[in-house]
Amino acid sequence: MSNEIAERARRWRLVLGEDGPDAPLDPADRGMDSALAELYDRSGVDGAGERSGGMGDSAPRVNRWLGDIRTYFPSSVVRVMQKDAMDRLGLQRMLLEPELMEAVEADVHLVGTLLSLNSVMPDSARESARTVVRRVVDDLEKRLAQRTRSLVQGAIDRSARTHRPRRGADIDWNATIRRNLAHYLPEHRTLVPRTLVGHGRRSPGTHKDVVLAVDQSASMAESVVYASVFGAALASMRSVRTFLVAFDTAVADLTEHLTDPVEVLFGTQLGGGTDINRAISYCQGLITRPKESLFVLVSDLYEGGVREQMLRRVAHMKAAGTQVVVLLALSDEGAPFYDQGNAAALADLGVPAFACTPDAFPELMATALEGGPLTARTETAAP
User: Which stretch of 91-105, 124-138, 174-188 has the lowest confidence by average pLDDT?
Assistant: First the structure.
């Protein structure tokens, strides 16, 4: 048997398990095969699709399995296997045990799972859960927070216009050229910039208000995690007054916790219904300077409240001068499921609705705060 054929047989053996081709496995392969069999071998699954035995019988056995998959597979694969274990083996229930939380690969999906268990989590597990959540949040802040602050502050500075820019770097050449088109000299093929347009330097103080309203239904778990991190980053800036509101059928104002995104996350309650209209009504009361405000609604738009009132409230916001953006998802998961009818109705009001990756969010916020068009920056545009 050639090396290529042997390698192919080995791979199929690992994919198919004991039903696969007969291929020799070295000790590492046997370890992988055993870990995969614990999760994907369906010989122990009853007709309802639930395992009758397996890892669910023993927390120490699950702990060993979690250690094995981290030994044999890269982190990206470990996260997929952990997610599958939640669905197939009841691992979600066992995450309430502190020793298991120490063994799992921490990521945004795991944080969402832990938050969904928040209301039933025993005190013995809560501190371990907080440790896991904080580890993920700290990593996200290192990746995203500084860029958010830098781009948003730059956008706020650029939104101040002056006809006496102090430095060449402050000149807005596109605006300057547009302003001086009447002074074009065709015989010299040049334009005389009699009036300069530049970016000013704002004095310290609050110049923009940002209201983030985040749907905390179960399908939006990843978006809730990222929104808390971005909310905390914005709240750390003196030039931006930031509010963060989480909602399902009720509304929770989490603004006072923005100094610590972990506290924000444990203040949410994932799951339940959705009343977007009630959330927007609450947020309208937070907006005292409409023309200096940006309202960001993070929701899949499946409305359980009064749809007509929701749309009227958004129209009133727009008419008052508030910029409104709807993010169907704030995640790395790609195109989300969302209510296309509500997205289309918002588009008719001039409100963009699209999914956004976390890496694109800082630039999106900067563009919105500058008052620039967002259509070119959408990740997955609604119809």
Answer: 91-105
